Amino acid sequence: MRLIGDILRRYPWQSVAMLVALLAAGAAEGLSLGSLLPMLSIASGAGADAPLPAREAMGFMGDWLRRADWQPTLGLLLVLIVAGITVKGVLMLVAQAMVGNTAARFAAELRLAMLRALLASRLDHFLHQPLGRLGTALTSEVQSTSGAFVNAMNALAFLIQALIYAAVALAISWQATLTGLAAGVLVIGTTSALVRIARHAGRTHNARLRGLASRLTDVLLSVRPMKAMAQESLADALLVAENRRLQRAQRRQVLSAAALTAAQEELFALVIALGMYLAIARLGMPFTTVLVLVLTLGRMLAQLGKVQKEYQKVAIAEGAYLALAATIDEARAAAEPPRGTREPALREGIRLEGVHFAWGERVVFAGVDLDIRAGSFTTLMGPSGCGKSTLLDLVLGFQQPAAGHVTIDGVTLETLDVRRWRSMIGYVPQETLLLHDTVLYNVTLGDPALGAADVERALRQAGVWDVVRSLPGGLEHVVGERGGKLSGGQRQRIMIARALVRRPRLLVLDEATSSLDQDSEDAICDTLAALRGELTILAISHRPAFAAISDRVVQVDRLARGEPGAVSDAGGNGYGNSGSTPA
Ligand code: ADP
Ligand code: MG
């Protein structure tokens, strides 16, 4: 079972320490159990002062005590019983504290491993993860997995106890013990189908939970059009169906656990009744011996049953663990490839040289050249699907050309430190996703290196400072969920301020104004025109307003087809085309 194997591999020392504590606790319990037979034999005799009963009636503890020259009196035996139970209690507490600690650590490490693997994965991997799935992994799957660790350790503790009971019983009657063990194995074998059912139900349950969470996030992301068209009932039907499937899987889990308990109790009672009949009616064993055998073997069977029940819980949680492990493994497999270490600067410009790129079968670029000079304002145009965003992906290093190079100041991106390169870029996406936090946080994203002065400068540059200042609380004003309390234009300007606050060398806008009204767009164009020359700007836009303020317009569809006239020195004031390369 992968879960248990992984845990043992991850925490070898803790596992050994827990095992030792459990074994010691078991030994202490064995001691107090072993005192039971002599104690009962003495107690059932003629009173505390009577001569000692025969050797057979005293069991192994009687032998040990005599060999150690201790008189096995009722008082001593009772003290031993209580001492054994006390020591066992303390050791069990220690073992359980260790288990709890390790389980909490295991959960924390799993969460961290998942978050790190995701953040280090390629952008396209990240983008294809359903949000709900990640949420389920981070919460319920981690919880189930660390719970399963506790269950696995409980199973181990119960197994050790069962073996101790077996050892004590063995010292009294090996025939009875072997028969009891065989019966226990038979009972567990008979009921193992219930563990299989539970394991399957656990997997289904986890898959349904992921499904429901993914659906719910999908619905949340498109709630406005859905409500606007009175289509909530469709979402409701979808969620209800998913929820009902989840309920069925949960019911199977509960039923299989209850059935296991009932079946075990029934079968164990049968085994014990048969055993007692054999021992008393057929073999004529003394009553105290039978009583102790029933006590020890009965507890042994009960503990074996608990091992199986704990194992069933581990089996239920296995689905959650496997799903979580798959999420982590997939993210690790999609890690961004390690790249070069050279420092980028962007003093001369960005070039695409003979770039070939395809998404699977779809060839987007087959040998494309493009020159973007530092300090220039370039607008990429062209019909949807012609490769504008793909071109940006290549410049950002999210994708690598199959042939050819993307170079920064003549140095290919492959040999540059791509994270340093990206730290020089300000990026404004089409969809404005503000976080439910203050304006300040939305601009800095929590970067401690940025202060209020940087934020004010960026907001001024983005032309939204006056708006922010008039908000209640100013920079500390909390924008609504996804920025719902601000207008589209204001939100987009805050996104521009976020891009500008780190003083980027390159500003990238991917259809940043396509969802804005004319006035907002004009205002943003004014902002960009004012920034022109200070930094390199690369924008995707369909709007003529952009062509008017840019130095160059690239028709990406023509560029991709290798047609002439793809690049025109349009609009603007000829800045950046004069051959000068402003820094
Ligand atoms: P644009 O931004 O110009 O609208 P894109 O660069 O997004 O176009 O897409 C160019 C082509 O590549 C399209 O045919 C699109 O279907 C395809 N494409 C884009 N992204 C992916 C992707 N992640 N996986 C597969 N194909 C993609
Ligand atoms: Mg696009």
Descriptive report:
This protein has 583 residues and is of the alpha/beta class. The chain has 2 domains: 2-201 and 256-333, ABC transporter transmembrane region fold; 349-569, 3-Layer(aba) Sandwich (Rossmann fold), CATH 3.40.50. Helices cover 64% and strands 10% of the residues. The protein contains 20 helices and 10 strands. The protein has helices spanning 2-10, 12-34, 36-44, 59-67, 74-119, 123-127, 131-172, 174-221, 223-228, 232-282, 287-333, 388-396, 418-423, 439-444, 452-461, 465-470, 488-500, 518-531, 544-549, 556-561, and strands at 349-359, 362-373, 377-381, 403-408, 411-412, 425-428, 506-510, 536-540, 552-555, 567-568. It has a 6-stranded mixed beta sheet with strand order 6-7-8-3-9-10. A 4-stranded antiparallel beta sheet has the order 2-1-4-5. A hairpin with a 2-residue loop joins strand 1 and strand 2 (362-373). Helix 7 (131-172) runs antiparallel to helix 11 (287-333), helix 8 (174-221) runs antiparallel to helix 10 (232-282) and helix 8 (174-221) runs parallel beside helix 11 (287-333). The longest helix is centred in the middle third of the chain and has 51 residues, at 232-282. The two termini are 61 Å apart. The structure holds adenosine-5'-diphosphate and magnesium ion (MG). Adenosine-5'-diphosphate (ADP) binds at residues 124, 359-360, 362, 364, 384-390. Adenosine-5'-diphosphate binds at residues 124, 359-360, 362, 364, 384-390.
Which key phrases capture this entry?
single chain; 583 residues; alpha/beta; Rossmann fold; 2 domains; six-stranded mixed beta sheet; four-stranded antiparallel beta sheet; elongated; binds magnesium ion
